[in-house]
Amino acid sequence: MLVTEEEFLNWKEDIVTKEFFSKISSKREQIKEDLVHQLYENPDFACGKAMAFLDLLEMKYADLVEKEIKYE
């Protein structure tokens, strides 16, 4: 399915999307706080989750567009 840049930008501005990203941001901050307090048995896994949340929060339209594969 091809998503246009306009559709992506509209989605990013949708009230449900904004709430979703707000929850992700809050969860990421909680993970970081819990890491500081050493509350995880596996801190590397928690760091990975926090990085995945950051990737979602910073997602741009270009990240969704498939890169053209050139065959030689």
Give a structural overview.
Helix 2 runs antiparallel to helix 3 (43-57). The protein is built from four helices and no strands. By secondary structure, it is mainly alpha-helical. The protein has a domain at 13-59. It has helices at 5-13, 15-36, 43-57, 61-64.
Spell out the blueprint of helices and strands.
Elements: H1 5-13, H2 15-36, H3 43-57, H4 61-64
Basic shape: elongated
What is the straight-line distance between the termini?
A: 27 Å
**Mean pLDDT score:** 90
| Number of strand elements | 0
Number of helices: 4
Q: Which residues sit in consecutive blocks of at least 5 with pLDDT less than 50? A: 68-72
Helix content: 55-70%
What is the SS-derived class? mainly alpha
Q: In sequence order, what are the helices and strands, one letter per element?
A: HHHH
Largest sheet: none
Report Rg: 16 Å
Name the beta content range.
under 5%
Q: What are the salient characteristics of this protein?
A:
mainly alpha; disordered C terminus; 72 residues
Care to give the gist of this entry?
Helix content is 69%, strand content 0%.
